[in-house]
Design brief:
It is a single chain. With 175 residues, this protein is α/β, with parallel strands linked by helices. The protein has four helices and ten strands. The chain has helices at residues 21-28, 32-49, 115-132, 168-173, and strands spanning 2-5, 55-61, 68-75, 78-85, 89-94, 97-102, 107-110, 141-146, 151-156, 161-164. A six-stranded mixed β-sheet has the order 1-2-3-4-8-10. Strands 7-6-5-9 form a four-stranded mixed β-sheet.
Length: 175
């Protein structure tokens, strides 16, 4: 699989730029290292599971998004907009909502960023961008990838696919 790096925090081979650490922390927040580690794990897993007919574009900034698209996977099974989370704990994707379990309240509560909505926005932005470039695609598959094995996510009627790390290679290869 070919990998194309577009992050301002990495070089063309994907290595974190020493000079970009401060910018990454300012741009991505205090958990920036965990975010990037999760994306690295996802890319490595996909590279090990998919053949050379796939291209993975990492951290592409697109018009209309206030964040980058973590992973864009292009291959024989379609075009995938993959939002990666490296969170742990108990979460729920319910409709267009992203919730975390609050043990004090003994309930799920909305949290930001809304990763379900972010995955949907990524897919829509890629679709719109390609159509503006006169490259009409029939659809872009939005997907939320929960890469941390210590995350338990409940899924109820979401507009995006929500998968854990073990399910993603087979899901993409068999779609």
């Amino acid at each position: 699989m070919q990998i194309v790096h577009c992050s301002p925090f990495r070089n063309e081979t994907g290595q974190l730029l020493r000079s970009a650490r401060k910018d990454a922390a300012q741009s991505l927040g205090p958990n920036w290292k965990s975010l990037l580690d999760g994306e690295d794990q996802a890319a490595k897993m996909l590279a090990g599971a998919l053949d050379d007919s796939y291209v993975l574009i990492r951290n592409l900034g697109l018009p209309g998004l206030d964040h980058d698209a973590d992973l864009i996977l292009v291959g024989v099974t379609g075009l995938w907009a993959i939002e990666v989370t490296n969170l742990g704990g108990l979460h729920k994707a319910e409709g267009a909502h992203w919730l975390a379990f609050n043990p004090g309240a003994v309930a799920f509560e909305p949290v930001e960023p809304n990763l379900v909505e972010r995955a949907r926005q990524n897919g829509s932005a890629i679709y719109a961008y390609l159509h503006r470039q006169n490259m009409p695609v029939p659809w872009v598959n939005p997907l939320l990838l929960c890469i941390n094995p210590k995350m338990d996510v409940r899924v109820e009627d979401t507009p995006v696919a929500v998968l854990n790390r073990a399910d993603i290679p087979g899901f993409i290869a068999n779609s």
